[in-house]
Each structure stands twice: as C-alpha cells, then as structure tokens.
Amino acid sequence: MLIAIALTPRDQIAGHFGKAATFAIYNQQGQLVERIQNSGSRELGCKHKKILQRQLAALDVSEIVLGNIGTRSLARLLQAGFRVNRVAPRTSLADFLAGGVTKEALLTAEQGRACKREKGACGCGCGTKKAAPVAVKVGMLSPMVNGLGKIGGLKL
Description:
Blueprint: E1 2-7, E2 22-26, E3 32-37, H1 47-58, E4 61-66, H2 71-79, E5 83-86, H3 93-98, E6 104-106, E7 150-151, E8 154-155
C-alpha cells in the first residue's frame, strides 16, 4: 500500500490536487519511494489531472493525501478506487509523516470543493472554451478566398 502526498515546492501539503508541484509516494514504513512532478502545463489543459491519476495507478498507489480537490476530480479518483484524505493545506510534510495531523476521509464527490469556473465548452470543467469555427458566407471575403475572382460563375 502506497500513499501519494500532494506537495508544494516547500514540502507542505498542497492546497489543491491539480496545482500540487509534486506528489511524494511513501510506503507503509514511511520511506520515500518516488516523486512525481506535476506538469500542470497550459498546453495540456485539464488532461494533466488524468495523466497524474494514471501515473499514481501505475505505481499501485492506494491512498492520496491533499489539502483540497474539486468535485469532478474527486469523483474521478474515487471511481478509480483511490482512498482520498484531506488535511489542512500547508501542513508540513514532516508533521504529517510524524502522525500528528488529523485526516478527513473524502467518501463522496460532494465533499470536494465546487469549481470556481464555469464548465467550459470542452466538457471537462476546466473553464477553457474551444475556438468556434468561422462560418464563411457567400459574398464575404475571408483569408481562404482572397485572390479568387470567380467560383462556379459567381463573382466574389
């Protein structure tokens, strides 16, 4: 049984699952097994959370400790079989490993934090909108038809 702990760059419990800088993976004896860097890049959008979930599952992590998590991400982790526990954000890693920190088990998605952004057009909840396709109308000049004089007998 391995435990993944969401951390800030200062080795404190991260305030949010998707924004954690790293995930420290510990075994039951409290020994560090591995550290996973969170790419969290804008190019990936919200896919980085799914990538993190796959990485944690590949390492056989069974428990995740974090400060906060959104309802959609929490639902996804719970459905995948992870046990998720919340502790006070910015708790030091040393205090957590010493055992002097109270953990709250998150058992339902409703225990997660509501998304602050509107659900985006991408359908995942990241708040980003996909670019709308540009509709070209007859008689409308566009970069695609510049330089053309006639199409099928119609003047542009």
